Amino acid sequence: MATRFEKYQIESLELAFEESEHLTKERKIDLARVTGLDMEQITSWFNRKRACKRARESKGELEQINAVLKQSLQELHSRKAKLQMELKERKRREAELEAENELLKHRLTVLEGDSQLDSVIR
């Protein structure tokens, strides 16, 4: 079972960690004397403290990346919606132009027919 450290021991370790995340042998010996902990306990505490700090930093970085990705996704959804509207409008315009083209072809056919009729009459 893990031994719980006393408040004064944790405070001493925290203070030492703020000064430096890596201890020299002399500083470990000094901390062992001040806290009453053995060097292995001090080394383990520092290792856990560094691991927790890295984990918090990694979590912060991942949260930032996540926020950027969410923003990018939202922008892509907006862009997709805009492009879909543009495509719909272009298809509508294409249908209009095709209808107009058919009407003009029909008129041309009628005019060509009238023209042939005129030449027959003359």
Automatic annotation (TrEMBL):
SUPFAM superfamilies linked to this entry: Homeodomain-like
Keyword Transcription tagged: yes
Pfam families referenced in this protein's UniProt entry, alphabetically: Homeodomain (PF00046)
GO terms under cellular component: nucleus
Record CDD domains: homeodomain
Residues that span the membrane, as ranges: none
Task performed by this protein: Transcription factor.
Name of this chain's protein: Homeobox-leucine zipper protein
